[in-house]
């Protein structure tokens, strides 16, 4: 029996120990070299440029079921968040807000050497940066399902910013320490940031932007996660 060609028989990308091509996703067991094609043509083929982009490992049906159930749970949270108004601050009252809050507060500390404005903005920056980095790291590891979940977290964290930005002028949202922005001067992040930029009257528009963007990202992440989950069963079911 001849050894497998060193490159993918479909796209000529370098082969790995996986059971499918990391670039085009073809399953090697289903693809055979054309009859009479010498192995030298594989060896001399020009590899596809760029890093691997496809997670090849097929997953068992039971794992897919668990993954889909988890995505259904995320869908439920997404639906609940998006069917409440920004002013209701529903997104800030669910347990996921407690996940985002430590990163938000850490951002104020980490960005404090860069001046007052950046320190204040650092809370929102870090709140969005952490889930973005998590999603990107999983994507680089070719774990697309985990990347989809990370992207969903980024979307949820984006929507979580909306009530805070929307509250910049009214200052009625309860903040850390049990006070509101109207009770303590120069304490509300978005009042400070928008005030310094001279666009305090844009607070509702900015809040809607974060809310709508978060909703789109959450929805897209769930759809992608479902697609990834079902596609990864091909190596098992076929």
Automatic annotation (TrEMBL):
Domain of life: Bacteria
Keywords, ordered alphabetically: Membrane, Transmembrane, Transmembrane helix
Membrane-spanning residues: 59-79, 117-139, 209-230
Protein name (database record): Zinc ribbon domain-containing protein
Organism of provenance: Citrifermentans bremense
Lineage start: Bacteria, Pseudomonadati, Thermodesulfobacteriota, Desulfuromonadia, Geobacterales
